[in-house]
Amino acid sequence: MPVLVGKKAPSFTAKAVVANTIIEGFSLDQFLGKKYVIFFFYPKDFTFVCPTELHRFQEEIEEFESRDVAVVGCSTDSEFSHWAWLQTPKAKGGIEGVTYPLVADVNKTISDAYDVLAGDYDIDENGTLVVRGELVAYRGLFLIDREGIVRHQVVNDMPLGRSIREALRLVDALQHFEQFGEVCPMDWNRGDKAMTPDHEGVSGYLAN
User: Fold this and answer.
1) Domains of the chain, start order
2) Distance from C-alpha of 136 to C-alpha of 194, rounded to nearest angstrom
3) Name one GO molecular function term (predicted).
4) Looking at 9, 37, 38, 50, which residue is catalytic?
5) Which residue in 32, 74, 87, 187 has the fewest CB atoms around it within 10 Å?
6) Does residue 74 have an active-site annotation?
7) What are phi and psi of 191, to 5 degrees?
8) How far apart are CA 39 and CA 144, in angstroms?
9) What does the pLDDT read at residue 16?
10) Alpha-carbon span 198 to 124, nearest angstrom
């Protein structure tokens, strides 16, 4: 699996759905120079683990927005599937009330570019497309800075739900480093002590 950390996030243009609206030509490039981005992939609409994550992102959306972070979801479902899921109440397994964009990666090119596409495909000697497994996205998550550089990535297998609070913690750590030049040790949370390298390369703790 290629590591995208430290590299430019793969650019794309695709259809997306925001609440009741289907958007043509959606791109993360709109956030360059303006916002950080949490770009996350999930396997399928109308499933079991996925809505728990999407609802949790929505519950924390004000926290992300207060940090100038745009949250964007993506799966290999169509824009019509996204739209239908967004119209379905939570009590019936839907994600009604989710306000951030959901990208439709029906051609699977975005999942492939971010290297989160499960399954495999090839062309046989007869020129026929051969698919092994199911071509859907793993639970990938990418923290992209305002310059469009990936600063964090994590990929979970499909049965393993993510911690949305951990994504928020990593945003805090990145922004703390950018503002103060201090690095953040294990389990660091906003308000905790951070660290700064001294001139000999030995890290010492400093209070925020």
Assistant:
1) 14-161 (3.40.30.10), 163-208 (no CATH)
2) 39
3) peroxidase activity
4) 50
5) 187
6) no
7) 100, -15
8) 8
9) 98
10) 58
- What pLDDT is recorded for position 183? 87
Q: Which of 205, 143, 141 shows the shortest CA–CA distance to 175?
A: 143
Between CA 150 and CA 173 the distance in angstroms is: 14
Q: Give the span between the Cα atoms of 4 and 97, in whole angstroms.
A: 32
Q: Which of 41, 60, 59, 37 is nearest to 49 (CA)?
A: 41
Nearest to 95 by CA among 64, 60, 55: 55
pTM tops 0.85, yes or no: yes
Helix axis angle for 164-180 and 49-59, nearest 10°, is 40
User: Which residue carries 């590299």 as its tokens?
Assistant: 7
Separation of alpha carbons 31 and 69, rounded Å: 9
Cα–Cα distance, 131 to 113 (Å, whole number) = 18
Nearest to 180 by CA among 165, 168, 193, 170: 193
> What pLDDT does 188 receive?
84
Compute the half-sphere exposure of residue 21: CA atoms within 13 Å on the CB side of its CA: 8
